[in-house]
């Protein structure tokens, strides 16, 4: 007699216990489901420019395909891509990196992940300035590290306070991750605002700095962009400066990011990447070279468009009773407070008891998808991405205005 096999029990790795799929992706999936059902949902949750990849970048990719550049490359970037990255760092940031001080991966996100995997041991701490991009904390956890949230006050422009940083540092602190301009708040640091933070790091030589500069080219009102390793050369030897082509050149799907740092760190990152993806896509590397080395006038044109959208959104939100919104210095998000709406009720009598409840209400009743601030480590706020057309923004803002008027 054949005994039927018992059903297999799946056991996930313990490291995944506190980690889930990004809440932003979940909200996006729900919004897409509602759209398939015929709902006129406007999605303002994605961190993706609505502009197209520049034509000369597409042409470079097509030429690479025709030339047969479809094989494996050096695992952390071709010599040509590394040369383009090095020239970008020199030209725009005043930073000099040799080829073995540069890593290229499948997006800036992979570079961050690789760096944590290459440096963190169980119990090592990474300081995150909250609000922060949702993936930061989970990438720390999946590398067996411990994320340490340091809340940043709205009154300080959601920028990290040097005294708060000093208090958060312990003997286990390995990294400070700083994103400027930031996701989700659009907060950016001037040289004067960054200096006190760097002074703290100088006093703590065991703490390295990860500077996520992915929104570098989306700084508004004529404010110059500042990156830490250029401002404080004494920290360059323990700073990983990360960037990519996704946001500036509307190349999110091409998946190319890069970082510059000390060669020992870059070599360790290469070990991690060699056992995961190996090289970034060869065609995408050719496209990234064209983006970094070709005409740059598109950056200013798109920055102006994003700044105009920012002002449209901020002014409209601040006209709504119960919502307040600071004017961010960069990126393409606003991080607005909905604290004035907490405790109000929907027409059906449901209490808005959190930022998550407010965002659900906007999506389920008014067909606007935004992301609650609690996903970014700071509650009673919501993030709205204005990386979409002005027509979509105006309609979404009209719906949000009406949604708030319905609350009592």
From the structure above, extract its key features.
408 residues, alpha/beta, Aspartate Aminotransferase, domain 1, Aspartate Aminotransferase, domain 2, seven-stranded mixed beta sheet, three-stranded antiparallel beta sheet, 13 helices, 12 strands, 13% strand, globular
Instruction: Please count the helical segments.
Output: 13
Beta-strand content bin: 5-15%
CATH fold annotation of the largest domain: Aspartate Aminotransferase, domain 2
In one word, what is the shape?
globular
Radius of gyration, taken over Cα atoms and rounded to an integer in Å: 22 Å
From N to C, what is the helix and strand string?
A: HEHHEHEHEHEHEHEEHHHEHEEEH
> In which order are the strands of the major sheet placed?
2-8-7-6-5-3-4
- Low confidence ranges: none
Distance N terminus to C terminus?
68 Å
CATH architecture of the largest domain: 3-Layer(aba) Sandwich
Q: Main sheet, how many strands, which sense, barrel?
A: 7 strands, mixed
Can you offer a commentary on this structure?
There is one protein chain. The protein has two domains: 14-51 and 298-406, Aspartate Aminotransferase, domain 1 (Alpha-Beta Complex); 69-293, 3-Layer(aba) Sandwich (Aspartate Aminotransferase, domain 2). The strands form three sheets. A seven-stranded mixed β-sheet has the order 2-8-7-6-5-3-4, with helices on both faces. A three-stranded antiparallel β-sheet has the order 9-12-11. A two-stranded parallel sheet has the order 1-10. It has 408 residues and is an alpha/beta fold. Helices cover 39% and strands 13% of the residues.
């Amino acid at each position: 007699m054949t005994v039927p096999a018992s059903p297999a029990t799946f056991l996930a790795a313990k490291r995944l216990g506190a980690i889930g799929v990004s809440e932003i992706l979940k909200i996006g999936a729900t919004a897409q489901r509602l759209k398939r059902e015929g709902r006129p949902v406007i999605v303002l949750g994605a961190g993706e420019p609505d502009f197209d990849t520049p034509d000369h970048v597409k042409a470079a990719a097509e030429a690479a395909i025709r030339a047969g550049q479809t094989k494996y490359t050096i695992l952390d970037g071709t010599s040509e891509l590394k040369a383009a990255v090095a020239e970008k760092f020199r030209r725009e940031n005043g930073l000099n990196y040799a080829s073995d001080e540069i890593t290229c991966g499948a997006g800036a996100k992979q570079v961050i992940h690789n760096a944590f995997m290459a440096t963190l041991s169980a119990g090592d701490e990474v300081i995150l300035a909250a609000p922060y991009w949702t993936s930061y904390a989970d990438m720390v956890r999946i590398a067996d590290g411990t994320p340490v949230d340091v809340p940043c006050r709205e009154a300080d422009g959601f920028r990290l306070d040097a005294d708060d940083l000093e208090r958060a540092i312990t003997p286990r602190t390995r990294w400070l991750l700083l994103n400027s301009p930031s996701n989700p708040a659009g907060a950016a640091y001037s040289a004067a605002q960054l200096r006190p933070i760097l002074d703290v790091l100088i006093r703590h030589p065991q703490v390295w700095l990860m500077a996520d500069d992915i929104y570098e080219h989306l700084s508004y009102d004529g404010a110059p962009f500042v990156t830490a390793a250029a401002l404080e050369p004494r920290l360059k030897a323990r700073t990983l400066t990360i960037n990519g082509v996704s946001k500036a050149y509307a190349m999110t799907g091409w998946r190319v990011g890069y970082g510059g740092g000390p060669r020992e760190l870059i070599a360790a990152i290469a070990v991690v990447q060699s056992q995961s993806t190996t090289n970034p896509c060869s065609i995408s590397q050719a496209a990234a070279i064209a983006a970094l080395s070709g005409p740059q006038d598109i950056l200013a044109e798109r920055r102006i468009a994003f700044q105009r959208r920012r002002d449209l959104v901020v002014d409209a939100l601040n006209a709504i009773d119960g919502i307040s919104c600071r004017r961010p210095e960069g990126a393409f998000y606003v991080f607005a407070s909905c604290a004035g709406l907490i405790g109000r009720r929907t027409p059906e009598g449901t209490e808005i008891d959190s930022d998550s409840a407010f965002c659900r209400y906007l999506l389920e009743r008014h067909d606007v998808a935004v992301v609650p601030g609690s996903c970014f480590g700071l509650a009673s706020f919501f993030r709205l991405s204005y990386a979409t057309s002005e027509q979509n923004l105006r309609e979404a803002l009209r719906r949000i205005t009406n949604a708030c008027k319905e609350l009592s």
